[in-house]
Amino acid sequence: VKYQDGMFLVDSSKGIFYSKNLVVASGGLSYSSVGATDVGYRIAQNFGHKITPCAPALVGFTVQPKEAWFKELSGVSVFAHVAVGDKNFEDNVLFAHKGISGPAILNASLYWKKGVVTIDFLPNLDIDKALSGGIKQVTTVLGLPKRVTKAYLEFSAIADKPIDKLTKEEKDVIGLLKNYQFAPAGTFGYTKAEITKGGVCTDEIEANTMESKLQQGLYFLGEVLDVSGELGGYNFHFAFASAVKCAASIR
Prior knowledge:
Elements: E1 2-4, E2 7-12, E3 15-19, E4 22-24, H1 39-46, E5 51-57, E6 61-62, H2 68-71, E7 77-84, E8 87-96, E9 99-101, H3 103-109, E10 117-120, H4 127-130, H5 138-141, H6 146-155, H7 168-175, E11 180-182, E12 186-187, E13 195-200, E14 218-220, H8 234-249
């Protein structure tokens, strides 16, 4: 793409095209199987725009060997509280053969860079009361699917036995389910990510028109920009809203 003599020249595999205005709505890097590429970022850089580093977002986490018990539960979903930095989400988490996913995890991935993610697998349980004693088995008092509790107990080398037979150390290990901390190995990558975070720096875009501040007649829309939202349709909405703004302003 070049700009010369008041016109954009687009040299493509389908031939050369000329236009007074050029709209770049090429999306991010997610889902290369449907044609996603970095062409929008390359065009932006060609006209002097800064690109905020990109990363997969709204995506599941791969895990370290110490979280191998996650993989044994592939397909099981539980309601949990997930925290990353100062962001907190309460929704389902889904164990997967690669690690962990589900709505709460996808939202958390939007804010995760590196470091620890904390999961409360028992957000509605008073763990101290549950482990205070009694003859009920561990798998019956936590309120989790038995498959989940058994996998965690087996991985922690704790037998499923009556609560009053547990040692203090065993209770402490079980109690970690209220504040389970792990450092993801990474994410499932762009092939599974719903969006790409990062992109064309918005400081260089006119908010009311979506036009480049560096090149008249050049517009950037949707996911190619450094704008990303949580689950709930916000990313679709921004793509559509930015298109409306652009369409209304093109001369």
